Amino acid sequence: MDDHLQLKKGDALYFEEDALFILDQRALPVEESYIEARTPEEVAEAICTLGVRGAMAIGVAAAYGVFLGALVASKGKVGDVAQGAHRAARIMKASRPTARNLFWAVERMEDEIRNFEGGSSKDILDALRRAADSVARETVCQNKKLVEVGIEILPGDCLALTHCNSGALASIRYGTALSILIEAHRRGRRVHVFVDETRPLLQGSRLTAWELARNGVPHTLICDSAAAILMKSGEINIVITGADRIALNGDTANKVGTYGLAVLARHHGLPFYIAAPSSTIDLSCPKGENIPIEERDQEEVKIFRGERVAPDETPARNPAFDVTEAELISGIITEKGVIRAPYDENLKRMFSSS
Ligand code: MRU
Q: Are residues 247 and 274 both part of a single domain?
């Protein structure tokens, strides 16, 4: 593991002078600005409103949010330090329900609070800061390895379709599916990425296209509904996305629309891969129907960049994620290798071998 990882300006987030600085993803691609969060409530607000988003990035943000809870308490604002951290952990867990990484990170912080409970405030604070830094380091380390694994499965002439954003913005330094494609291009492989715009919040056009453009990767933006015609005309030869939570049987939650792509890929005989580190896998969740799916405000569907695009009285549904059944997934790219069916057996084996 990289023990010297120093997050800094330019990363999706970094911690400096008692504040978490979060690259405001709501403002991209127009503006690169940072949210300065000094309390757990401010971190939770950034998570809920997608100032920071993507499974791993919200996990790391939540870990620092718990540390901030302890820090604020140590300055005498809210109870004792351990209580402040426990309270912050509850706030973080209530922010967004689907991404396993958020709970993975907060549970790591809670273990650390319990280990040091009863100790001095300084001991608890030091331990929590170390734990948050180690959540960030592990995230970088897992994804760096995952990218190496993923490059191996790409077709020689890679015409990839991806959905939502699974690059460095969705994590720290290295993302998952998108980072595999970016790194393959960097190493001289022929890669063209088709980018679903990803309605309603446009993570594809605002964030994925931004990352691809900055890295000089050939890419084409498409409306979500154009995926089928491009698959049929042979312009795509692989579909690859990230994940927010993977159940023990391999069923996988990711940005709404992913399931439809997997069905289309099967119909057109194309491989459909998920890329996610082990911190996204939830062995306590037997299957997809047990994954909590976030339902967001219907106004996100009815208002497009500040303009109303549906009658006020028209009701809308806005599930933020959907679940792709394991049988539609060709393989799950993890930092420990590509996991294939039977997923329950192979996922358990992967964890027991660590
Ligand atoms: O609502 P978002 O933007 O947080 O959704 C993010 C995704 O669905 C990503 O594809 C997912 O987190 C995997 S990449 C870390």
A: yes
Q: What is the CA radius of gyration of the chain?
A: 20
pLDDT in tens, 274-306: 999 999 999 999 999 999 999 999 999 999 989
Residue 107 to residue 121: CA distance in whole angstroms: 20
Q: Is 56 in the pocket of ligand 1 (CB under 6 A)?
A: yes
Q: Which domain holds residue 61?
A: 13-145
Assess whether 244 carries a catalytic annotation.
yes
Let me know if residue 203 belongs to a domain.
Answer: yes
Kindly provide the b/e burial profile for residues 137-151, where b requires at least 16 CB atoms within 10 angstroms of the residue's own CB. Answer: bbbbbbbbbbbebbb
Tally of structural domains, the chain:
2
Residues 177 and 263 in one domain: yes
Check pocket membership of 176 for ligand 1, CB cut-off 6 A.
yes
The pTM of this model reads 0.96
Residue 289: inside a domain, yes or no? yes
Dist. CA 180–CA 165, nearest whole Å? 12
